[in-house]
Design a protein that fits this description.
This protein has eleven helices and five strands, in the order βααααααβαβααβαβα. It is α/β, with parallel strands linked by helices.
Amino acid sequence: MRNIRALVVDYGGVLTTPLQDAMVAFVTDIGLELQDFIRIALAPYAGGEDSLITDFETGRISEKEFSTAFALRLGDLTGKEIDPENLVARMFGGVRLEESMLEAVARVRAGGFKTALLSNSWGLDLYPKHRFAQLFDAVVISGEVGLRKPDRAIFDLLLEKLQVEPEACLFVDDHPAHLHAAAELGINTLLHVTPERSIAGLEAALDLDLSG
C-alpha cells in the first residue's frame, strides 16, 4: 500500500469506544438482549432494510421525529412505555472518544497524508466538531449530505472532496459491509477491531511510526 495518500476513518466504534458496549446498559434497562436489539431494531446493520433508520441517518427526518417513532417501536418490542426524550443521547450515553485513535489520525495528517471522516450519523450532536479542523481535510457525515454507507454515492462524494483516486485511499471502519462497498470501488480497507490493531495496521500500510 505504498501509494496511499489519504486516510479515511469512520467515527462511531473507531474513533470512539465500541457502540455496542455503550448500548448494553440501555437495552438491558428496556428488557432486550443486545443482539435482539440490533437484529430487530437496527435492521440495516444486520443485513436488513429499515426506512426509519436510513431516513434518520440521511437527515430526511429530524431527531425528534426519529425518537418518537423509535420509542414506539421499542415499546412494541418490550411491552414497556419508552420515553422518547433524549433517546439517542441515552442510547449512546456510554460512548467515549478513543484518544489513541484520534492521536493516530493527527499523526498521519502530520506525516503528509490527507485525512477524512466518513460517518453514518444518528443526529449531529454526538460529534466533537470543535476538533475536526485539526484532524481532517474533509468531513462527510450522512445526515449532512443525505447519503449513507454503504451506498456508492457517499464514497464518490468523499473521493471528490479529497481529490484522490480510490486506490490512493485507506478506509478504516468497524462494519464489514461498509468495507466491502469501499473495496468494490478500489479503496484499500482496514477492519477496525481494537485501537491497537488498527494503529499497527496503519503503521504497516502507511510506513509511519504512530507511537509518538
